[in-house]
From TrEMBL:
<keyword id="KW-0274">FAD</keyword>
<dbReference type="InterPro" id="IPR007867">
    <property type="entry name" value="GMC_OxRtase_C"/>
</dbReference>
<dbReference type="Pfam" id="PF05199">
    <property type="entry name" value="GMC_oxred_C"/>
</dbReference>
<dbReference type="Pfam" id="PF00732">
    <property type="entry name" value="GMC_oxred_N"/>
</dbReference>
<dbReference type="InterPro" id="IPR000172">
    <property type="entry name" value="GMC_OxRdtase_N"/>
</dbReference>
<dbReference type="InterPro" id="IPR012132">
    <property type="entry name" value="GMC_OxRdtase"/>
</dbReference>
<dbReference type="InterPro" id="IPR036188">
    <property type="entry name" value="FAD/NAD-bd_sf"/>
</dbReference>
<feature type="domain" description="Glucose-methanol-choline oxidoreductase N-terminal">
    <location>
        <begin position="76"/>
        <end position="99"/>
    </location>
</feature>
<keyword id="KW-0285">Flavoprotein</keyword>
<comment type="similarity">
    <text>Belongs to the GMC oxidoreductase family.</text>
</comment>
<protein>
    <submittedName>
        <fullName>GMC family oxidoreductase</fullName>
    </submittedName>
</protein>
Length: 505
């Protein structure tokens, strides 16, 4: 047993590191931040090349259980979490996304209430004004688009009716523009390099890397601590409050291992039920992604160029943006092992469409009660007919961009795809079902909602229903995944929760 803490935060990712750093600003509050992965920043100072989607050895190497085609499902396992290994994309969700949460019984998450926290978290070096911050921990930069491929992509988008947009974090309409990133001098700036870098010297903040939370401990209806495996030993950590910020996969697993979840199923697995919350592990959403790969003309990709620099928002119905189209440049063959031989040692370029709002839902569940057993992840990507149809529309848009004169003249060849595959509906449908992939943006598996909502796990203040002193603060709580990559939204969650928890001191 260890001495008691005021706050224990499980998971040092986008939300958890933000929350722990902000809570530790109260000098009298003892905060412990647990992370299953290593503290790489303390060891080597290190984010790698901006844009690489995963870094070896710093992820939970999960697989999906959908059908007969399991695919890798990687989420960050390092101090900084997925903010340390993602593409450093710093996009806000659209205002309507948050207003939708408010309309579902969570009025504290209306756009006008969350905007101040997006402002608080950032220092935007390119755009000023009341909707942008200039004193926050996270630097926001828009990467230069002045490359032949970037310029060609913008021209092709304009030909498809997508106008240039100066600030994608302010315009909730279709358009194309420079990608906002949380980066500085070509290096991603995750929560380890921003929030925790400023907080590490505080004597009241302790970070335990390589420490895995096994289960939550409780007394009646109150959480009392966490059972942790650290340095080959299992220790009990006592706390006044526990916040789970382990991410859209590991948060529901920890809750379920602790007896919080669908009681009947947990009992069958040998887990003693604590609180019956059927929504734990349900409602999993992700952004379905489909990319078409090409080989560019020799010399177009330069060493050190980032993967992402420009992105477009588009609307499958012509009105409401629900598609995002990325130009991915300078991708090394080893980073796409399934296509590497086709690239013949050359860097690859892809144009990829991501469906940003989805009807399809999956689940995350325990396979058994053992803490090291891999989860059962069922994504059900684009299984709903409307999702599939919209992804087909997005794929046609991608093909149109690649075939536009501005782009086509810079590409040596397209891999796998043909005009016929896109033109014929049955072939396109089959191709979408074959090539659709996850974005590794799991969300919704402990979603927020009022107590009368049978699928809700937390209330709008992120307190777990039926358990005093326990919160969830990460992408698990999102009722619907926002129409943006989720990193910046998760940092905002940490800021929002820290405000409430500090007031309740």
């Amino acid at each position: 047993m260890t001495a008691g803490w005021d706050d224990v935060v499980v998971g040092a990712g986008s939300a958890g590191a933000t929350l722990a750093a902000r809570l530790s600003e109260q000098a009298g509050r003892r905060v412990l931040l647990l992370e299953a992965g290593p503290d790489r920043s303390a060891a080597d100072g290190g984010p790698e090349q901006l844009g690489r989607p995963t870094l070896a050895g710093l992820n939970w190497e999960y697989e999906t259980a959908d059908g007969d085609r399991p695919v890798p499902y990687r989420v960050g396992r390092v101090v900084g979490g997925s903010s340390a290994v993602n593409g450093a994309i710093a996009l806000r969700g659209l205002p309507a996304d948050f207003d939708e949460w408010a309309a579902a019984g969570n009025p504290e998450w209306a756009w006008w209430k969350v905007l101040p926290y997006f402002v608080r978290l950032e220092t935007d070096h390119d755009v000023t004004g009341p909707e942008h911050g200039d004193r926050g921990p996270v630097p926001i930069r828009r990467l230069a688009t002045g490359t032949p491929l970037g310029d060609a992509f913008v021209d092709a988008c304009r030909q498809q009716g997508l106008p240039p947009v100066a600030d994608l974090n302010a315009a909730p309409t279709p358009g194309v523009g420079a990608l906002p990133t949380n980066s500085w001098q070509g290096r991603r700036m995750g929560t380890a390099e921003t929030y925790l870098a400023a907080a590490r010297g505080r004597p009241n903040l302790t970070i335990w890397p390589e420490s895995t939370a096994l289960r939550l401990l409780g007394d009646g209806s109150r959480v009392t601590g966490v059972e942790v495996r650290r340095g080959g030993r299992t220790v009990r950590v006592d706390a006044d409050r526990v916040t789970v910020s382990a991410g859209g996969v590991n948060t529901p697993l920890l809750l379920q291992r602790s007896g919080i979840g669908p009681a009947d199923r947990l009992a069958k697995l040998g887990v003693r039920p604590w609180v019956d919350l059927p929504g734990v592990g349900a409602n999993l959403s992700d952004h379905p992604l489909l990319g078409i790969w090409t080989v560019p003309r020799a010399g177009l990709c330069r060493a050190g160029d980032p993967w992402h620099s420009v992105v477009a928002r588009a609307a499958s119905d012509g009105v409401d943006p629900d598609l995002m189209v990325f130009l991915n440049c300078n991708v090394a063959p080893e980073d796409v092992p399934t296509l590497g031989p086709m690239l013949r040692g050359r860097p690859g370029v892809s144009v990829a469409v991501m469906l940003m709002s989805t009807d399809s839902r999956g689940s995350v569940a325990l396979r058994d009660a053992a803490p090291d057993s891999p989860p059962e992840i069922r994504l059900n990507l684009a299984r709903e007919p409307r999702d599939e149809q919209r992804l087909m529309t997005g794929t046609r848009l991608v093909w149109s961009l690649l075939r536009a004169p501005a782009m086509a003249g810079l590409l040596e060849r397209v891999l796998l795809w043909t005009d016929r595959m896109v033109a014929e509906e049955p072939l396109l449908r089959r191709a979408v079902r074959t090539f659709v992939a996850p974005s590794w943006h799991p969300a919704g598996t402990a979603r927020m909602g009022p107590a009368g909502d049978p699928g809700a796990v937390v209330d709008q203040f992120l307190r777990v229903h039926g358990v005093d002193g326990l919160r969830v603060v990460d992408a698990s709580v999102l009722p619907t995944v926002p129409r943006a990559t989720p990193n910046l939204t998760c940092v905002m969650l940490g800021e929002r929760a820290a405000g409430w928890m500090s007031e309740m001191r």
